[in-house]
Amino acid sequence: MKPIEFLPAVDVKAGQVIQSGSGGENYSGTPKQVIDLFIASGCKWIHLVDLDAAYSNGENYELLNHLISNIKVDVQLSGGIANQTSLEKALATKARWINLATTALVDLDWVVSTIKKNADRVCISLDVSNDLLVARGSGVVVGDLWEYLKKLDAAGCNRYVVTDNQSDGNLSGPNIALLAALQKRSLASMISSGGVSTISELTKLRQMGINGVVVGKALYTGALDLTSALRACYK
After folding, report:
1. What is the spatial distance between Cα 170 and Cα 80, in angstroms, rounded to a whole number?
2. Sorting pLDDT into bands at 50, 70 and 90, what band is 26?
3. Catalytic positions, written as ranges
4. What are the structural domains, with CATH classification, of the chain?
5. Which of 49, 106, 142, 144 has a Cα at 20 to 30 A from 235?
6. What's the pTM?
């Protein structure tokens, strides 16, 4: 059974790491402190998110760029990357993957062009609510998931970061049915984001052949033991 990439989420707001969910916001320290802890524990990836950019409340670009320049593991950069300006800044970092926001799909022609030029570095965030693409940051309803998937696949998209909006931040488990349906319709890599809180869920995703999993709240609340999670993903 092939390994599944384990990507601990580091969400940055006003220069600090924050985890938000149904219970409100909890600050967890500086990004460097959190990233250093994850790497020291054996993490091979960091999912780094600019929450301010995602919610159009500013940005943390200089900080994130500095962090990425000094991180010795792969980084997937996310948060508000939805136009040419934000894309160019993201591509200028050393992040392995640049995750375009679901809101970027409002300008599908631009996204298609971007994928064709940067298929080896640019992936697409699919925020899903009942088969609709609905951007979490803005609430913008983009359209039918499956219609957009066809167009993005045709453009050559190699990687999707999939979030079920109902389960994200609620520790209620990933949407297995959604992920399985996406696997049937696309040959691209699938990264499950949000909802994971148990080792058995990680094992299930790995058994399905899901390529990666982004985990946030479960790590910060202690619901998921990091050492055990890494073992489940790679051993």
Report:
1. 22
2. low
3. 11, 127
4. 5-234 (3.20.20.70)
5. 49
6. 0.95
